[in-house]
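Researcher: Good morning. I'm working through a list of sequences from a screen, and I'd like to move beyond sequence-only analysis. For each chain I'm collecting a predicted structure so we can compare shapes side by side. This is the next one on the list. No need for commentary yet; just the structure.
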Amino acid sequence: MLKSVTTHEATAADDAEQELTDGFNLMIDALKLNGLDTIYGVPGIPITDFGRMAQAAGIRVISFRHEQNAGNAAAIAGFLTKKPGICLTVSAPGFLNGLTALANATTNCFPMILISGSSEREIVDLQQGDYEEMDQLAIAKPLCKAAFRVLHAQDIGIGLARAIRAAVSGRPGGVYLDLPGKLFGQVMDAQAGTKSLVKVIDAAPAQIPAPAAVKRALDVLKSAKRPLIILGKGAAYAQADDEIRALVEKSGIPFLPMSMAKGLLPDTHPLCAGAARSTVLKDSDVVMLIGARLNWLLSHGKGKSWGDAPKKFIQIDIEPKEMDSNVEIVAPVVGDVGSCVSALLEVINAGWSPPPAEWTGAVSKKREDNVAKMAPKLMNNNSPMDYHGALGALRTIVKERPDAILVNEGANTLDLARGIIDMYQPRKRLDVGTWGVMGIGMGFAIAAAIETGKPVLAVEGDSAFGFSGMEVETICRYNLPVCVVIFNNDGIYRGTDVNPSGGSDVAPTVFVKGSRYDKMMEAFGGVGVNVTTPDELKRAVNAAMDSGKPTLINAVIDPAAGSESGRIGNLNPQSKLSKKK
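Model: Good morning. Structure tokens for this chain:
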């Protein structure tokens, strides 16, 4: 389809020549006007031509094998860039596949726009059975931050502008934009079409905290004998790295990074309490949350893990409704992380007494003791590998390559890696986030490579890899510098379970014994490697990272090495019925 069409209308007076445009081109121009230059998606009716035309217009179009993975890529692109990642899908089933990623993006506060083609409204509303007929807008609304439908070409500019603002303003999240197939072919005057486009200005304005809120927070913090700062992925998203580092170092308060906030300050920083997590949660008396939520990942701010010591909570968050969600927040500070931390720094710069040495010394000693206790486990060279030996090898690689991006998912593979692999730079660790879902791995890895140009190390459990594994073809097709390491223990949690009935079917958590995932990568022209020891693993990963070639390493893990649900087995309901003998 051409960029513009020339028509000739003869009238009695004269012949007039008019330049026209259409919905395809207006959407492409609107995206480019707002600096949205990458689309992740799966082609098909009614958006195939749109993808072709976008690519021809200079937009990078990354085509996936499944919409959920494309959606996950768009979501993490939003986290890394602070611009909404764009996912493009077909109607009905394609839209539904992308909807999982959209809901996950909203839960994790990643800015993303899911754009889906859809059936015509008049047919959908009368339920007349159109091709892939579905009321997609109604389905999307409960699962995202906002949802819009554009019916007329002249409204495309406004529709995209509203979607961008909704995705990035305030607490970021997912937005759905519904584009009926007939919209793309609508024709209008090109000059009028250009005027209808909107360049979004200041889509996520700073939200300055109230001075009284800042003073209240500082007063509470000054009263602490055992203060703690918890950094969440909201702090990482804010890209206020210098301010956050200055706040921690000038205050002298130990900090605990949540998994995707690791690297805001190096995990080896003397004030990092990551290796003393249990101690600081239990013994702290004042806890300041920066871009972190008191959800299940922090035991909701109460219970055994928080100990008996009375706690006061300070919370910095852009969303007022987040305050008091689980426990009383005595000092809420509402605003964007950068503005709030800067405001706190101004007061701290005016005069501040560091926490008692008794507290910081106790945290430091606990951290050092735990690191020393863990060290021998990470140095073994067992064959088959256990998780500690394999992760010990990867820990060394990440230390030597701090600029690489680590993507991580699984059960044991995820939970143990969080504590073992140190991070040194912000936004270099990408994982399952708030919901703890499986299947983000390949989408995150692809987008990380596309958006940053940095090498990516994706460490996957064999179960987690199964949700998005076909995207290794996508990695090869675009020749991305992604090294996938699969911790293959022949099953979910462990590969040793047996069918309790004695039947011929394997247990529900068991996979094919001795699977060779590396052969998948070889099938698409990438590099496949099978390793059985930590030393072999380290050599193979280093070779992959040096070469930049798409690589998949099948890391053979002892099938008995895992534990049920990693570290969250307590969330699995236990049957109260005794088993029949």
